[in-house]
Amino acid sequence: MDTPQVIAPSRAPSSGVVHSNTRHTSRFTVVGNHLTQHSELSLTAIGLAAHIQSLPAGAGIGIKFLADRFPESEARIAAALRELEAHGYLKRTRERLPSGRVVTRTVSYNQPAGDARPIAPPQTQPQTRPRRRPRPVHLAPKPPAPTSAPAPEPPAPAPASRPETGEPAPVPPRPPLPRPQAHDLDRHRAATGLLADLRRHEPRLLLGEDDIRRLAPAVAAWLERDAHPDAVRRTLVADLPESLTRPAGLLAHRLTALLPPPLPTAPAEEAAPRRDPLQNCDGCDRAFRAPEPGHCRECRSDLKEAA
Fold first, then answer.
1. Is residue 271 one of the residues assigned to a domain?
2. Residue 190's closest CA among 224, 240, 237?
3. Burial of 215 (0-12, 13-18, 19+ CB in 10 A)
4. 52, 185, 191, 305: which could form a disulfide with 216 (CB 3.0–4.6 Å)?
5. What is the mean pLDDT of the chain?
6. Which range of residues forms the domain containing residue 287?
7. What's the CA gap between 275 and 277, in Å, rounded?
8. Distances (CA, A) of 271 to 266, 268, 277, 291
9. Minimal CA–CA distance to 204: which of 166, 165, 239?
10. Strand pairing partners for 94?
């Protein structure tokens, strides 16, 4: 008789990860190991690519939108998107709509190097109508040519101007934040404290340490131009929009666009004319101004007449 074979159960590894998998039946996304185990992509780029592939078509994946959704900063998210573009997992193009607005079209590939293509909607073929037999056309006799010259035809409308290239117009860069002319440690500390204290006056202006560190030089530039801290605080807190999602961006815009000019230098004060001190007249004992003691004007005139 044959000896029965017994299959020993697989032993768990002594070190490393142990998988406890459950089969998914809904709400799952298939991601290739070429992405999750990529040797050149950063961990942020791999996670961002997996998140983008799990989103439905038409979902927003702008840098600001992702920065509000995840704790990573806009700089890290922008760098991760550039990594995915460089390795063929993402393609972004800018297009101009008929209304003049410039939008970004993003295509996500689940295979690197752009091997996959987005599935286009099926095009419905127009229904063909049966051809009809052409009817005979009876040409009318041509009218005699007019003796007078015909009226000139109106000029044809000029064709709509189209851009020579399909590239969208470049978006102007944002102006840089103002910076103080001279570095003052006390002024910088006052600017940092003003930004951190904004949440006491408006809870929606809760800023992180990175935002405070980035905006502090701009506030210091205001203080350098003799702007009172209370005036700076009122300018930053007043008339906030109802839906405030990026308080740091709003404050950066106000600090740049509403920067006050430097105060004009005060004119030098003119020296007041020197006045003679008061003296008592030796004749009538009246007070009069003169550089030295003596007689007043009336007494001097009387002395001249007596002489």
1. no
2. 224
3. buried
4. 191
5. 78
6. 280-307
7. 6
8. 15, 9, 17, 19
9. 239
10. 104
